[in-house]
Amino acid sequence: MVCVKALGRAMCAASCLLLAACGTEPASPEQQVRALIESVQQSIEEGSVRQVGDLLHEGYSDPRHANRYAAVRTLFGITQRHRGVHLFTVIKTIDLTAQQDSADAVVYVAMTGVPVESMQALVSLKADLYRFDLGLVEERGEWLVLSARWERMDSSLL
User: Fold this and answer.
1) Is pLDDT at 84 greater than 60 in this prediction?
2) Has residue 69 got a pLDDT over 50?
3) Taking a C-beta distance cutoff of 8 angstroms, is the pair 89, 108 a contact?
4) Which CATH number among 3.40.50.720, 3.10.450.50, 3.30.470.10, 3.40.50.300 corresponds to the domain 27-157?
5) What global pTM score does this model have?
């Protein structure tokens, strides 16, 4: 009897959550791009190279990698050598095209061996700093990374 009541409460709660979700507006293209960048960050920190690969467009390329498979292989090597990679990211700009189906983003990334929660904490660490220029594209309702360029930055800029 207790199980039936608990199941009924769970189904009621799930129905309420579903109805609440139906009433929300869809995320804007900029919010979707921010979510993509956050997903890449989270996947790298979790060491889930396969998930990162799923976030790269089939036509992905960058100055060091001819395709997404080469980029994923390199990322796999990095995550194997540096267990416990933590990223502190700041999205500087997101420029959407007029059609809002592609975008360019500038993202600053600090890579450390420990979690960083704030800019103040970052200053005290010796982090590797990079600027990423990302080309992003929306395909079949999903935003993907199409291209990336990066350069190392001087830590004195903090």
Assistant:
1) yes
2) yes
3) yes
4) 3.10.450.50
5) 0.78
